[in-house]
Amino acid sequence: MLSSLGNPRQAAAQLMNFGLILSSAFMMWKGLSVITDSPSPIVVVLSGSMEPAFQRGDLLLLWNRNLMAETNVGEIVVYNVKGKDIPIVHRIVRKFGTGPDAKLLTKGDNNAADDTELYARGQDYLNRKDIVGSVVGYMPFVGYVTIMLSEHPWLKTVMLGIMGLVVVLQRE
Amino acid sequence: MAASQERITVYNLADLKNTSDDALPNYLNSIGFTQSHRLTDVRLALGYSAFALAAACFAWDYRFGFDATKHLTAAAVALYALLNGALTLWVLYAERGTVYVGTSRDGAETLRVSTATRKNVPEYLVTVEVTRKGAAPEEIKFARSFTEWFDEAGHFVAAPFQAAFANSVPAIGRADPKKVATAAKGKEGSDGSEEAAAYTPEMLDMLAKANVSVVGSAAEEATGSEAAAKKKGGKRRKA
Fold first, then answer.
1. Of B148, B165, B195, B220, which sits most exposed with the smallest number of CB within 10 A?
2. Does residue A65 belong to the interface with chain B, where contact is any CB pair within 8 Å?
């Protein structure tokens, strides 16, 4: 109960438990990043441009190492466009050249045209380094929580507050 | 603390255990034991250094991006796993549910008290490891029902709780002889049933009522003989 906060060591221990929950979650995420070599190994699909493969709210697991083979035509990749921080999930439809300098063109399965419109001004293709990872697994619908959270930011505050309170008030 | 105005839910085993655990250091420190915080301090050091590492990792990741700090992050993740593993091992094998470590006033005896409960059994399982200077540690185990020192409403009553320890552990009994005497008298009074608690339910209720209405160490006068000895302890604890 609250009175236990009178003891500085106990208070410190309870605060530590809360901190460790947060930091463990963060370090697990970073560990996954290191293993998959991707800055963001799990992404949520935000648009319907890849339907029927992926719907809005699907959770995608990415892999960004070319151990066996190069990233190739037909793979679904997540890429970042310079100057825009929203990652895009689309399929590679053309590839010119090999190695890190290969020129890649992507297109959404559900889009009428390829992605040249979506790229930055003056950019006609992607390089390997623009790609955050290739999709190797997905979980339908789970990511909807994060869509809700980003569309209603106040939910984040509420959730964090409740979590904090529970940890501080409960010792078990 | 002794006169707990605070009420706990008597059906909540964690509450029962935590309240009792909190009361133990107060009692033992008040009768002259010097508490050692080494176990807790090591745990806090491990936990907070792990947290600091994660915070640093967050900072450099935020500032320099993932690709520039990849190797540093990999090292940090490995070190974090190590620190967290060490923390888990420390809690499991070094602390083992320890709630109090302390040395007696003359420095001859060291107590290590660990407590536990079993799921859905309202019993306080206590293990006291007494180490005398230059001798092998001696282990005393006893189990007491929480009903002995919690009344129906959920008030903690200090006297029977303290008597349970004073009677079960000679090292504590020697430091607080009045408690041992009281309990012995109580046993004789309650028509020879050896295992009976030193305090009957009626007495517990009475004690609790006194505690609620009178507030503070005065409540302990309700128990009569040991009031004088206890009162001193109560004052010291508040300091």
1. B195
2. no
